[in-house]
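Weekly sync notes, structure subgroup
Attendees: PM, AL, DS (notes)

Item 1: joint prediction request from the bench team. They want all two components modeled as one assembly rather than separately. Inputs as received:
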Amino acid sequence: MNHPTLAPGAVRRPVPAELMDELRDRFGEHFSTAAAVREHHGRDESPFAAIPPDGVVHAHDADDVAAAVTACARHRVPVIPYGVGTSLEGHLLAVQGGISIDLSQMNRVVSIDADDLTATVEPGVTRKQLNDALKDTGLFFPIDPGADASIGGMAATRASGTNAVRYGSMRENVLGLEVVTASGERIHTGTRARKSAAGYDLTRLFVGSEGTLGVITAITVRLYPQPEALSAASVSFPTVRAAVDTVIQTIQLGVPVARSEFLDASAVRAINAYSKLELREQTTLFFEFHGSEAGVAEQARTVQELARENGGEDFEWATRPEDRSRLWNARHSAFFAGLQLRPGARAITTDTCVPISRLADSLIGAHEILERATVPTTILGHVGDGNFHCMLLIDPDNPDEVAEGERLNAEIVRLAISMDGTCTGEHGVGLHKMEFLREEAGDGAIAMMRSIKRALDPHDIMNPGKIFAL
Amino acid sequence: MNHPTLAPGAVRRPVPAELMDELRDRFGEHFSTAAAVREHHGRDESPFAAIPPDGVVHAHDADDVAAAVTACARHRVPVIPYGVGTSLEGHLLAVQGGISIDLSQMNRVVSIDADDLTATVEPGVTRKQLNDALKDTGLFFPIDPGADASIGGMAATRASGTNAVRYGSMRENVLGLEVVTASGERIHTGTRARKSAAGYDLTRLFVGSEGTLGVITAITVRLYPQPEALSAASVSFPTVRAAVDTVIQTIQLGVPVARSEFLDASAVRAINAYSKLELREQTTLFFEFHGSEAGVAEQARTVQELARENGGEDFEWATRPEDRSRLWNARHSAFFAGLQLRPGARAITTDTCVPISRLADSLIGAHEILERATVPTTILGHVGDGNFHCMLLIDPDNPDEVAEGERLNAEIVRLAISMDGTCTGEHGVGLHKMEFLREEAGDGAIAMMRSIKRALDPHDIMNPGKIFAL
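Output from the run, pasted for the record:
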């Protein structure tokens, strides 16, 4: 998308030949300026056209990261941390040029401390990779944004996903970090204790900072015992309101559902086609329950009753592991399935999150806004948290469609903000939600964020031009 | 305690008569310089002798706070926010002089949004007051540090307490804040959405900032449905290790206990005397289980089995509400009960928290260190989190006892830090743990905290001299 307002006033900063020489000397073949490599690192899953960095360092350890940042700091050249490229808000675009630090090869699971229910990983480890490494421990890492994102990227964007209603987001599940600061120094935040009142919460300051304060080079996360029993179900509803009311009542009753996912008819159609399912193509909820055998049965009974009272039908159980996997793989593919509704399209994705009592108004309001769309759309989301996503499938080369998509996106976001909600539940601000963040947080809070940024990154080299304008 | 190292180099700053006049004009009878009032506001529950502020403003709303801070900022005079005075680490001592802002009369419950499971309160509302206000809603606020602390103070120190093992600490349960900044501006952080990825996590930066970045003037917290069933039990153990092993196994199995509290024989003796209980005076665990009838029964069965395998005996159930209240009131009075072991004594209190696998080594290590004490001691704590407190009952006027208390305290803290634990799980750093924070976090992290402090409070007026030296 050639988006005129994407990075207003952004100017590529000069990158001195001296820096390029230094990086070539230090990193050899692990430093690349090839056009294809730069192009690949200048984009993400958002609809924005790539804005390539001037070069890409493939880091293999925290020393590499520190060396690259130190060199860039000396020359006041931007640094953009890169995980696996699954961002949705333009986080990776080199709007002011600079050097991308690719962390995907820092992918060691440093330690699994099963007795403490913690693991420490390098930032390039993906969530699936960590869960594979945990297989024989009886533990799992619950945060699951759909994409097989890197855990460093998930920390940087404060990601969450389907399990957050039960297990929380990266905010609740990162215990500590190793960070390379804007001056190239390595610091640690947090310990492996489950709670602490020891000074400013630097861990939570970096979680969600989107690469603008430093580069995360190690993450200690919380793990959970695999539940004794699991059960999943899908149920379809006659109306959006009926489905949402079921979710609201579930949450208000305190039923500890592990997952509670909404799909509108269009999203169901998309995953039926993409994942070869035969779900009834109407508003649908997917649930998952974790607990003891008795606990899961009890939760399922309560939710089934609530769903029936709200007119839910076709309650389909997936108790066998393979059926559960099929259901959740389909849900996880929903973004790509949605894109297939219109081959060649890219998606503008909303990410609002509202207090649970406003979920029905917010979701039905979004549904009505999308009825005016001329492009295909879907809605899906982690509604147990009040968080859902509208996908607007636009042709990125058609300025009218881009404008329409952005207009409807803005209406949906502003509706959520008017309900004391947020413009982004889990994707982050990046380039695309900067104006909405200002409206949501207010000038005073933005000024405070700016002060922090200036204090920790005085030359504005860390992923500049993201979250807010300096 | 006349503690020579308490605030090294601290010098009272001059307070111009002009400021005092301004405050008198603005606040009338709500501004006091009476010696008794100043003395009362210059101390907390720690053993430190009072260091009174130069005056006390009784604030009644956020405008009062903003006016007081603005006036102090203009004259570069320190501001110390004061809730109800239950801090344990010297947070309230006016080590550089200045104006205490008493927030206890900002005690309105602003809103209870039962459908959203949130409430917004002024900072002087105490946890018991909030729970009283929630009585007819079927909801409760779980964070419970024992003392009937103010929710503003609990946010400022990142408090937790007995329920944190199940419900988290203030870190997890504050959704948003209103804050008066060091320049007297009012800002909001966060929304009422359950999760958000919208910019830097200012909410969590202020939670635990101990009044050093601004004054919290409103807090939006999460609420929880009252569990359908509750059950509590006490069980005594032949050894410290047997009790701790029971807790570790409970956590590692993922049993969602609501409370899991440790008391050594001395702590049991203290609460027997103070609260007229007849518990066997040996190492004891208190448990509480929350859930459905079936869920509670299942949890209780599992924990009872684990306890028996570890040699636990005298499993006493408190299923009637009055028996449960008796047990937990006794636990909550344990600090004051401990003080009664030695009338006239004050307590040096440790607050370490370690990864759960190190809990036995840490607690037994502390137990051994305390065996060398010449003063009475007790140990109690929220061991499900790895957090426990040693109380050393010293005569604050006896320099030898003060020195001994501090020496043993330091040994216990350093043992926890050596186990990748923290010097403070929930009390905060205040004056008393500054050196330990430095050892725990390292110079790099402290330098980062300092940068943030300087950026948000350039004249160092907000509760100066706490957490770290500037």
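Discussion: DSSP finds 16 helices and 18 strands in chain B.
Action: AL to compare against the crosslinking data before next sync.
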